[in-house]
Amino acid sequence: MENLSALDPQGPVADMQYSLIALSLYIMIFVLVVVFLIYIFVLIKFRERPGDTHIPKQVHGNRTLEIIWTTIPIILLLMLAVPNVMDTFTLANTSVMTEEEEEEMDHVHIEVIAHQFWWEFNYPDHDIVAGQDMYIPTDTRIIISLESEDVQHSFWVPALAGKQDNVPGITNEMWFEAPNEGVYMGKCTELCGPSHWLMDFKVVAVDPDAFDQWAENMAEPSETATHPEEGTVAADGREVFQDSCISCHAVGEDGGATGPNLTNFGERQVIAGYLEYNEENLENWLRDTQEYKPGADMPSYSQEQIDDEEMAALIEYLNGLKILD
Q1: What is the DSSP string of 254-312?
Q2: Which residue ranges traverse the bilayer (predicted)?
């Protein structure tokens, strides 16, 4: 899956963690090579020879050797421990670093709330809520507060940062930056129920101006999208949405928060976190949610509840929920 690897670091946090991985790997390779060279040397030099009854010199109690093979591991451990400890403190510091950054708003605070089996992204400084897709500006410190609504989850965007747990009743914090625009895949890495493996999300990095426009449009979405013109198929779909979906899903300022916010649903690339976005998959998902995401709280809608004509109208309405031009 694209960008789902810590070995392709994007940004300062991922670079630091990749450097630690590389350092530990180099140290392990060095130790392995030295041990095998010594092993091969001893194997050849002190091998048994026909007629040779000579016993090699014993080194037990040799103070010089004991100091050497005690000192070398200590040095290797220090080489590994010092940068680890330094980076740990750097990564744990989620505060804005300077007064200038505070004044320039050169950071974005996002509250990441995990649910079975979806992700909620609150932007308190912008007064908006998003679901499944987390938009961020490039070259900006992203300060993350991690919470959970139900069981323990774990937030992981491997190309940007290491994983951190979402624990019920506890708020953990982390930060990262994305220097390049793009879509970065994320996953839950804590077994959280039957659909844990389907609890995917995306981090969408855009330039700061595009992010500001996105945030503004999310806060005040187009009336054309949220309230289609009367007499259109999308308007009929909105009525179905109001009857069946609004209590759990918000569009703009209207609706509940039991499920993901759908204000920009029509711009997503996937449905339910992993299904390719198309009308067939969307209808299949709405008809039988447990088939595609076992354990999800979202109900399924039979033909008796929403007939084919109403379903087509609902899909037309959902497809039109877009905030970007």
Answers
A1: BS-SSS---TTGGG-SEETTTEE-SHHHHHHHHH-HHHHSTT-SPPP--TTTS-HHHHH
A2: 20-44, 65-86
CA-CA distance, 320 to 133, in Å (whole number)? 17
CA atoms within a 13 Å half-sphere pointing along the CA-CB vector of 145: 11
Q: Which domains does the chain have, with CATH numbers?
A: 109-208 (2.60.40.420), 223-320 (2.60.40.420)
Residues 259 and 241: their CA atoms lie apart, in Å, by 13
Q: What is the pLDDT of residues 197-237, one digit of tens each?
A: 999 999 999 999 999 999 999 999 988 888 888 889 999 99
Q: Give the pTM.
A: 0.86
**Mean pLDDT over all residues of the chain?**
91
How crowded is residue 203: how many other Cβ atoms within 10 Å of its Cβ?
A: 23
